[in-house]
Amino acid sequence: MNDNNYYLKKSKAVLREVRKSVIGKDDVICKVYMAIIVGGHVLLDDIPGVGKTTMAHAFANALGLKCNRVQFTPDVMPSDITGFSMYNRQTGKFEFKQGAAMCNLLLADEINRTSPKTQSALLQIMEEYRVTVDGETYDLPEPFMVIATQNPIGSIGTQKLPESQMDRFMVKLSMGYPSVEDEITIMKSRSENDKRKILSECVLDNGDIQAIKEAVSDIYVDDSIYEYVANIVDKTRHRENIIQGVSPRGSISIISMAKAEAFLRGNEYVLPSDIKNIAVETLAHRLITNVAGAAGNEAAKKEITDILRMIPVPKMQEK
């Protein structure tokens, strides 16, 4: 437990660093970090200008990760992401030229503005942590994750991500508008330094990140918690208003996120409250409801909330 305490302190230092750049969004910051330390990908869905890209850069700095940013537009090609082979006339051989994915943190900015063909280039990357170019497969650096941002579907020039890709995001989060007090703080910060850079300093290195991942993996999950999650997920597959329920990948994701939450609380085991606290963000984006358009997002969240009320919560004694 001593090692866990050490890495818990390091984790809290990371969160403090990110909060220097992202003001008033502590809950979102924590959940992004939770996804990072369990090796998951994050989708930040919100209107422009609320700090999605700033948060991604802040985490890259605080974690000491190599970050590549791709601004997704209709003319971005799959090879821009995966890389490509180029013929070298001097050697007479084709050589692999790395794409943007060869990094630790790939910031896919406005991912829903590019073509489906380019979006599909991310499917293998996000699932297998490798790229295949001209029949050759290349492993991505460790750790690796994708933080993608997207504007709401109602925005001009956007298109819906395919279900297969949505399912690969461990969580879907929304930052929302700042409070009046936080907005004042943001404006003052900008006026004091018009070229304000991200203030986050490196707190962890790759060895620390791997050790934290191992500590989180060792968090105990009781059989009653597994059954609780299985019942929640099963319910999504038999609801009248849900066309497509949560996949097994979603079940694995919610357990992983609950372990990360328990770790940040300083516990060595998962409680039902950990499941409840991250259920909507982990499961709702995997549902397809009979409500069309942007309203479908809210309908999916409501379905998960209603299911949580229905499923009996296992009684556990604190250890």
Briefly, what is this?
This protein has 319 residues and is an alpha/beta fold.
Structural account:
With 319 residues, the chain is of the alpha/beta class. The chain folds into two domains: 1-185, Rossmann fold, CATH 3.40.50.300; 219-313, Magnesium chelatase subunit I, C-Terminal domain (Helicase, Ruva Protein, domain 3, Orthogonal Bundle), CATH 1.10.8.80. The chain is built from twelve helices and eleven strands. It has helices at 2-21, 26-36, 52-63, 78-82, 116-128, 163-166, 180-192, 206-217, 223-236, 248-265, 272-283, 295-310; strands spanning 42-45, 67-71, 83-88, 93-98, 105-109, 130-133, 136-139, 145-150, 171-173, 242-244, 288-289. The strands form four sheets. The protein has a five-stranded parallel sheet with strand order 2-5-8-1-9. A hairpin with a 2-residue loop joins strand 6 (130-133) and strand 7. Helix 11 (272-283) packs antiparallel against helix 12. The longest helix has 20 residues, at 2-21. The radius of gyration is 20 Å and the shape is globular. 38% of the residues are buried. The mean pLDDT is 88.
